Amino acid sequence: MPKRCWTRCARKGNPLRALLFQSQNGKPPADMSISPTRTDVEGHAPASLACGARQIVAAADLDEKIRLSHATARAWFARTLSVRRRTAAAAMPDQPGRPERPLLLPPRDMPKRAAGGRQGKIALIHSLAHIELNAVDLTWDLVGRFADRQMPRSFFDDWVRVGLEEAKHFSLLRQRLVELDSHYGALPAHHGLWEAAESTGDDLAARLAVIPLVLEARGLDITPPMIEKTLAAGDRETAAILEIIYRDEKRHVAFGAKWFRFVCDRDRCDPERRFQDLVRRHFKGGLKPPFNDRARAEAGLTPGFYRPLARLIG
Ligand SMILES: [Fe+2]
Ligand SMILES: [Fe+2]
Predict the structure, then answer these.
(1) Is 24 exposed, middle or buried (0-12, 13-18, 19+ CB in 10 A)?
(2) What is the Å distance from ligand 1's center to 161 Cα?
(3) How far is the centre of ligand 1, averaged over its atoms, from the C-alpha of 166 (Å)?
(4) How far is the CA of 99 from the centre of ligand 2 (A)?
(5) How many angstroms does the Cα of residue 254 sit away from the middle of ligand 1?
(6) Ligand 1 center to residue 162 CA distance, Å?
(7) What's the pLDDT tens digit per position in 185-233?
(8) Which residues 6+ apart lie within 8 Å of 67 measured at CB?
(9) CA proximity to 260, closest of 214, 311, 194
(10) Residue 48 and residue 105: Cα distance in Å, rounded?
(11) What is the 8-class DSSP label of residue 109?
(12) How many A from CA of 252 to the centre of ligand 2?
């Protein structure tokens, strides 16, 4: 970790836990699992939110990536961080840091996933863990890459919370793999998930359209049947994790819809039409029905946004 990016927390006798709960406006949500660890309390704080986000995305060690996510979120909600430093910040990494395993393969080279049984269960959880790890990096990349935009502080509050929740999702699934005598990295994983970040790197509206409102909204469509199947197979532990993910992801889509509308309102353009233009330009493959209209609507993503794009299939 570059030293210039991290400064020693100089608040003697004022542990981070106390800072966290002193905050008036920056209280983290009650259900966020960000209880401080000894290391975090005694460790370093990032120089800015953007700096913390950059370090998280760059980290190749996954324990470090998760630890930095917690430390950055904690410092942000304790209101000890500015969004960015006044001096020009280093650019976000082009690619997220990754360990040697899993082997990353192009989607077309991925072996067919085992169906059913213990191996099928592990393969499914492994692929979901990989998606959640990418979600960690995609979210912190959004925070860091768009830190120079004029957005309200609550915009960063929302996405820092999402970054922390994605870290929680990854950790839960990784732990589940260990419980099943496997681990994250035991199987190959596909390399295509970062494309969405690359194609929307300089356009906040496009990033919001593609990540929360297409990819995470897709999660709302497919997770309930996945929970049912998992329960039918008798795997209540994995189903419980999927329930947590489903609940959180609904909120992530809601944040996406809120901030997409905010940007459109500021730019004086029609959100539905802009969404459709951006998705056509930045997202390959079209949107796959069936849609979970109810969950999407609860998140503020009404059918006028996505229904016209379903026709792209065929
Ligand atoms: Fe997630
Ligand atoms: Fe998410």
Answers:
(1) exposed
(2) 11
(3) 4
(4) 22
(5) 13
(6) 8
(7) 999 999 888 888 888 998 999 999 999 999 999 999 999 999 999 999 9
(8) 37, 39, 40
(9) 214
(10) 34
(11) G
(12) 5
